[in-house]
Amino acid sequence: MGRWRASSSSLLLKQIKLTSQSFLFSSSFPSSSSSSSSFLLKSTQQQQQHIPISKQSSWGFRFLSANPCPSPIYDNDFIDGVHEFSQNYEEEKEKVEKERVTNIPVKAYFLSTSIDLKSMQAEYSCNVIPPTSRSSSNYIALRYFDFPFKVAGTGGEEIGSCWRYMVVFQYGSAVLFNIEEDEVDSYLELVRRHASGLLSEMRKDDYAVKEKPLLKDDMQGGPDYIVLKSLDIDGIRIIGSVLGQSIALDYFVSQVDGMVEVFTDINRDMEKTGNFTMRRKKLFQLVGKANSNLADVILKVGLFDRSEIAWRDAKYAQILEYLREEYEVTQRFGNLDFKLKFVEHNIHFLQESLQNRKSDFLEWCIISLLSIENIISIYEIIHESTAGNL
């Protein structure tokens, strides 16, 4: 390429020099245009008779292009340069494609203790995505279309997908995909219409999915995000199930923590006074709350249910296992179970104490009745003896 540029410059300078010499040569003759033209014509004809063919083009007055014509000597350089440019272009294109990442925001909410999926499915039937497995009875997936929005990519802002997805679970969770913060309330309002037991304080968790088409592995993890080649509806179901379970588990853990605090206060009072003043009704309420929380975690949330999607495809099984480890679902349930056992132990102890207290009361009642009966018997004996003496 460098030798081509050098030859181009030399040809251009030579042409300028020859043109300037011809101009000076013509200016030395009279100014008459006709004589000047005839002289130049004769001069040119004479020069063409004596000058070799290879030099005629340089002495004539036809216009030459400023773009150099490559010499056969440099043909190989030209081809190599084009090949090098093409190769660099392909490498840059591949590099850009590898660095291209589409960010999809994911938001999980726990807003109620129960959601009527049947009524919701009937109202939004046009948005419901048909289930692909029999284990999808405790949730529904909905798809909405909207105008494309801008998402942050590696190379700047890019137009993201115009599809929005929402996965709603029966136990009260809703997971939103590709929905911006200012659009969340409008989508959650669709869920609240069919929810019961709405919470005064809604729980929230943020996550992200990054799409990288040229990713070598099926998935790659990161802090608060996961990288996939592409996010399809089965991937949405798998990710939504783990995030929904995780945010619901946070709620149930907070409920059990509240019960642990109650029993901790009772134990401290017993330590100070040697007695407790809890009523039997309050204790039964705590018993019912502990049992319902454990049943909800195991049965409704389905922490230990098998996913048919993950069972069919190892790719989704890998995503499921990674997210369960990332959110420490098993460990957190273990902590919840330990706290429930602590609550259960305290409940049994207090039940026995209340039972003993009731037994003591009944014993005192029996003793009182026996005492009254004895008093009445003594009175009758005394009364009969007194009447006999009279």
UniProtKB/TrEMBL annotation:
Residues 166-336 form the DUF155 domain. Pfam families: DUF155. InterPro entries: DUF155, RMD1/Sad1-interacting. One of its GO terms (cellular component) is mitochondrion. Belongs to the RMD1/sif2 family. This is DUF155 domain-containing protein.
